[in-house]
Specification:
This protein has 258 residues and is of the alpha/beta class. The protein has 9 helices and 8 strands. Bound molecules: zinc ion (ZN). Zinc ion (ZN) binds next to loops. The site of zinc ion has 5 residues, from loops.
Length: 258
């Protein structure tokens, strides 16, 4: 990946369009978004994407908003909550459409439905961390923030053997400096944001989810969706068809940023 593309992984894209509910109840000031100039980008010159940089307690996590804009792929990412039937139906819709997704699991939810962990990972989808209780994490102190991230990591580790590679803060589209420090402390080098909000959590109906997603999606997009809403499940076939028409493949975040 070129240095230019690495820089594109870190942008403030979408700040003005920050959603007002669901996973994104708050939009922090632009100053909270790390930029290459502010030192948020690992000083790797070996061509590896920033996400591969190891997390260390003295180097905060970076925030990723989207992937490379020169590759015909996107990542559909899902807030991990909802009934088992909804999650199974959603995964089946992805698989029918030849797609893979990334489920950012709420730890307390996954602990109550542990069989879903294997269902997700056995089919090429990816599991990540979306805090233990989906709290308003942008407004908690360091200890509470760390506990929320670390407790979910423990659930993921117990169920899958791995804490997953990606951490998405809860109830905020963008991470704060405090969140990025605590994410690194908990072993995550990346706070995963997104550049396309499907607004599916507002239950606008499948057609609106399709329209909202496809009008904004482009190469490298990371799309925010939710497992626990039937409209998302019903929208997925048409979303995937629309992506195909645009020449875009739906892959995991790890594949998108590889
Ligand atoms: Zn969420």
């Amino acid at each position: 990946m070129s240095p230019v593309n690495r820089r594109h992984l870190l942008t403030a894209a979408g700040l003005t369009a920050a959603a007002a509910a669901g996973c994104s109840t708050t939009a922090p000031p632009p100053g909270n978004i790390p930029t290459p100039a502010s030192g948020g980008l690992p000083a790797s010159g070996d061509g590896s994407p920033p996400a591969s940089a190891p997390a260390t307690p003295d180097r905060p996590a970076i925030e990723i908003v989207h992937g490379p804009r020169d590759r015909p792929a996107v990542a559909l990412t899902f807030h991990g909550q909802g009934t088992t039937a909804q999650v199974v139906a959603l995964l089946a819709a992805l698989e029918t459409g030849g797609a893979r997704g990334t489920v950012l699991a709420v730890g307390a939810w996954l602990a109550q439905a542990p069989d879903l962990a294997a269902r997700i990972t056995a089919h090429g989808h990816e599991l990540g961390n979306h805090t233990q209780h989906h709290i308003d994490i942008a407004h908690r102190d360091a200890a509470a923030t760390y506990a929320e991230i670390n407790d979910c990591a423990t659930v993921l580790r117990d169920l899958t053997g791995s804490p997953g590679r990606w951490f998405r803060p809860s109830q905020t589209r963008h991470s704060t400096a405090l969140i990025r420090v605590q994410a690194a402390r908990a072993g995550y080098g990346t706070c995963l944001s997104y550049d396309v909000d499907s607004l599916d959590y507002t239950d606008p109906g499948p057609a609106a989810v399709v329209r909202t997603t496809l009008k904004s999606v482009q190469k490298g997009s990371i799309v925010s969706m939710h497992c626990g809403h039937d409209g998302t499940i019903h929208a997925l076939p048409e979303v995937l068809t629309g992506l195909r028409v645009r020449g875009l493949r739906a892959v995991t975040v790890t594949e998108l940023l590889a």
